[in-house]
From TrEMBL:
Pfam families from the UniProt entry: SEC-C, YchJ_M-like
High-level lineage: Bacteria, Pseudomonadati, Campylobacterota, Epsilonproteobacteria, Campylobacterales
Protein name: Uncharacterized protein
Residues that span the membrane, as ranges: none
Organism of origin: Arcobacter cloacae
Coiled-coil positions: none
Amino acid sequence: MKFSPNDNCFCGSMKKYKKCCKTFHDKITFPKSALELMKSRFSAFALCNSEYIIFTTHPNNCDFTQDLKSWHSDILNFSKNTRFEKLEILEFIDDEVESFVTFKATLFQNKNDISFIEKSRFLKVEGIWKYVDGEFIEEEKK
């Protein structure tokens, strides 16, 4: 996939990537809230940026491993085989140390809809937000 820093960011901000999540991905600045981290992680997955995903994952996360080669490979495999269509923020509960973001990720693998809703938990560790875990939420049928 060809992607330019002048393209709109995947996080849904409607800003150019270079003025949005790229500054986080390049570690020029760090997300000031768990919401910013959530959005920047979605963009990182869409851009196959496994290093950022690993950097922003809390050690208590079940995917966290010292086997970085395998972890990078798993993230890249998922990212390369997934189309990241849209991120919708449904709820944001902000606090100074622990925050929650409920979101809907619209994703496709091949032509299969693998979209989901998750309530994610984030902790601030030494001034940097990290993704700890998430709970899938059943989507209400209309």
